[in-house]
Fold this protein.
Amino acid sequence: MNSYCSECLQECVIKNFIIQTSSLSLPGEWEMEKIKKFVENSTISLPTNWSRTWQDEIRKNYLTINVVRETSIVENSTQSATMDVVDVFSNVGGQTGLWIGISLLSIMELIEMLYRLIRNEFHIIRRKIQANRQ
């Protein structure tokens, strides 16, 4: 029986039952009297010649089903993510630093330098505008 959570795309619970069948052609002689008494005490309709042919009737019609568990071992498997969000960022940063030579600090310094250049240009433009007004 496989059951899926509404939030999961994969199976959450898997139940497997190992089936093994075996059979005997007839009940053993030690069971015949017990089966005869059971049949005679039940509400099963008996053939008219039951007293003479009861052994043949039991051999032809007797069926026993035994359901037995093969093992009592329960196996639980749990899956968990091996990488968290922090691990992903660390790996990306490490690979970038290793192969390109750029670190997060270098990127921040580049952004700061661009900010200062743009701010300096605005100050120069503002001074020119103020100088032209005077």
The CA atoms of residues 23 and 65 lie 9 Å apart. Residues 24-77 form one domain. The two ends are 87 Å apart (CA to CA). The chain has two domains: 24-77, 87-133.
